Amino acid sequence: MSTAEPASSKRELDLGAESSIGELPFPLSIGPDHYFLSRDKDGAYHLLSAICPHSWGRIVRWDNCFMCPDHGWRFELKEGLCVNGPRSRMYTFPVKVRDGQLYAEVPEDKAKWG
Asked: Which of 40, 82, 108, 109 would give a disulfide with 88, using CB separation of 3.0 to 4.6 Å?
């Protein structure tokens, strides 16, 4: 009898051609979901969810950071780290570049984002 958890189901999101991405962080909508494409200091792409990790409110770009208007948590623009609250960060997914296209893998079940 195995006690291992079943592998989580993931979906691959096609974010489009790398050449079509504008200034970072770049807002993206995929179906009903909203994201920001960013790049860290080492040049790796990240897909940041616009869903707040605290209250699931909608995160927006505000001045030189991201912010959840529901409670004022602010997040830095490259990796989504919280800058004015507890040790937290935006839901973050790695992005791969294949043949000039950007792809991110995210869990199917948003309850498993954390």
From this structure: 82
Which residues, in sequence order, are bridge partners of residue 75?
Answer: 66, 82
Q: Establish if 9 belongs to a structural domain.
A: no
29 domain residue, yes or no: yes
User: Would you say residue 107 has pLDDT above 90?
Assistant: no
Phi, psi (degrees; rounded to nearest 5) at 91: -60, 125
Q: Is 74 exposed, middle or buried (0-12, 13-18, 19+ CB in 10 A)?
A: middle
Does the pTM of the predicted model rise above 0.70?
Answer: yes
Does residue 8 belong to any structural domain of this protein? Answer: no
* Nearest-angstrom CA–CA distance, 26 and 67: 15
Beta-strand relationship, 33-39 and 26-30: antiparallel
